[in-house]
Amino acid sequence: MTLTAEPQVAVATHCPYCALQCGMSLSGTAVAPREFPTNGGGLCQKGWTSGSLLTTPARLTTPLIRVDGDLVPASWDDALDLVARRITEVQREHGRDGVAVFGGGGLTNEKSYLLGKFARVALRTSQVDYNGRFCMSSAAAAGNKAFGLDRGLPFPLTDVGDADAVLLIGANPAETMPPFMQHLRKAIDAGGLVVVDPRRTPTAEQARLHLAPAPGTDLALALGILHALVADGLFDRSYVDKRTRGFEAVWQIAARWWPERVERITGVAADDQRRVARLLAGARNAYVLTARGTEQHASGSDTVSAWINLALALGLPGRAGSGYGCLTGQGNGQGGREHGQKADQLPGYRRIDDPGAREHVARVWGVDPAELPGPGRSAYELLDALGTPAGPKAMLAFGSNVVVSAPRSAHVAERLRSLDLLVVADFVLSETAAMADVVLPVMQWAEESGTMTNLEGRILLRRKALDPPGEVRSDLAVLAGLAQRLGQPAERFPVHAETVFTELREASRGGLADYSGITYDRLREGEALYWPVPGPGHAGTPRMFLDSFAHADGRARFAPVDHRGPAEPVDDEYPLIATTGRVLQQYQSGAQTRLVAELNAVVGEAFVEVHPDTAARNGLAHGGWARVVSRRGETTARVRCVPSMRPDTVFLPFHFPGAQRANLLTNPALDPASRMPEFKVCAVRLTTEDGGA
Ligand code: SF4
User: Which atom of ligand 1 is found nearest the CA of 50?
Assistant: First the structure.
């Protein structure tokens, strides 16, 4: 590896992992924390050890092509020529939609943008989606419905630091993003932190009130708290009258969900529901924050709507010092959903079925709007269709490891195997890359510049600090190389990130996520720019909705939603509920963090958390191995007996590969609005490793 910067000169950058995008300095490969508002100078163990990824021996340094069953090194020209030729053949035989593209929420804004453009312009396929569909899509659907716009946190994270009450639902930041916890300090000290989570997590340990509903019953819990709030006359009538619409229809539903009835469904005491209502209503500044635990359900978007309804009844959204927000997970989970790698979107958070949006974006791209494809399949539906008679026969995956991260993962692997062509661009041989016909080695994090949009909607510049090893190329160069081989003019697919960003600005101009006023120079100067930034002189929008919401009449919308429970209830054969999540030391599919020795030494294998009585009933002992079996498959995991677990629920982290994949179990039942799979609830049984119960 060659250092482009003087080794002793620290490059100001951001962590490669989660959406907190903690500030860090990189000197060579040495990481040091850097003062930045989201992390306040802190880093978690993943961030501290991230420099080792830059020298991992597992790094891919040359393209690989499958020959006689084995992946063998190839030149870039041979690899790209082969991919372009096979794409052309597949499309000739099966039509434009015969080729699919799958992106990722960790890609920079520039890559997300160019990937969507590549799919729509170079391939002219509608079959493009990304793994963010598995991450934040339910919150996005609910946010768009309520506010007319979806920005994870519509306020700077530091605002939360002044709150005396925070309702945190389905989030465990003490493990997933530890520096976040400093922003909850005041609420914790004031006795105002309430955590909703079926597990007693390290975050729940710090809460005044921990509500542990049965997985899949959060929506009922939100209705119960709303009922208590309204029945006790604690809701903000003036705010509801002036700033919202639709309260009456919501109350007609919530009126039927008195807390004692909700207690019978959720297991959360009616008194606790009333205490939460009083605590939030009595707070001077309060926030309602949701995350994957409450969002990754087949009723995820309705569940988030129910929490937003509660926030609206409290008068929080759009009030300075209070609000509702979703905690985005992946590094560029926010930007990744704005620039057009989603099946139904064009850049600027525009809808692909909106004629005005198509015209605007087509003009920026220099194509006829009629040539742009329409909406395609959502992520799981796309994976499920691969290789089927009506589905794509080839797929290009960028920054995504679906063999580990998609639900019903054995089936997804089978679909991938059925393809005529699988191409994966990654910087290590992920489990998905290992199945590919062609693997393209691409740059990581500190090896190129690019922008990310963090969980607050703030755009950050990640600076290049090192040259990549071997023959590694940027994803942008890969897309450009393929586009040219598919007949596109070179200038239509630039390889320089700043040039791509300049075009992205134009494509986003006038859209909901308007980046047109952002430049690399402004970011280099350290300006804190939160979208929308609709012009060069615009200072950005750190706090949204203070005067009006993004609907035409300026008012937020209550959504009439009702409890309907998990898609797959437990029964005699599968009597336990499995829920999945993350641990501190691993990130997403683990393709990166499993390469870091310090992290793997702490948690390097799958485990299943289970109540000791449940373990004993199933013949399992702490420290032994269990088989966890669902209707879709089975996985093996080390037993951890945890007395605070609900006896009806087991928990598995989803970072581990092969036979330890938690997603071998999960249910791909989809939310009707967001197409989010039900990662957080499936029915399972436990057996000993040899199969005896
Ligand atoms: Fe910060 Fe997230 Fe990186 Fe940890 S993983 S250092 S919380 S950005």
Answer: 3
